[in-house]
Amino acid sequence: MFNVLTLGVLCSAALTGFGVALTSGLVGHPFDGQVPGDWGWSFIMMGVACAFAFGFFEWQHLKHRS
User: Fold this and answer.
1) Mind listing the pLDDT tens digit for each residue in 26-44?
2) Where are the chain's structural domains?
3) Source organism's superkingdom (predicted)?
4) Cα(20)–Cα(41) distance, integer angstroms
5) Is residue 47 packed enough to be buried (19+ CB in 10 Å), middle (13-18) or exposed (0-12)?
6) 1 pLDDT higher than 50
């Protein structure tokens, strides 16, 4: 069964994947002449930071559980 931390890691991985697709130009379109890659890099950074945070807390939880 999934717990909240595992779900957080999976959601942040999805956010990072969407950022990669947006950066590479596979999805989205420019808004007012902006490059979609700028938006994609933001999603990548947010997704990686969230994955690191959720992964760290998951590791701490598992370490103290045993």
Assistant:
1) 776 665 555 656 777 888 8
2) 4-65
3) Bacteria
4) 8
5) buried
6) no
pTM for the model stands at 0.71
Task: Choose among 2, 9, 1: nearest CA to 57.
Answer: 9
Buried-exposed string 20-38: b where 16+ CB fall within 10 A, e elsewhere: bebbeeeeeeeeeeeebbe
Tens digit of each residue's pLDDT (9 = 90 or more) over 54-65: 888 888 877 887
SS (H, E, C) the chain: CCCHHHHHHHHHHHHHHHHHHHHCCCCCCCCCCCCHHHHHHHHHHHHHHHHHHHHHHHHHHHHHHC
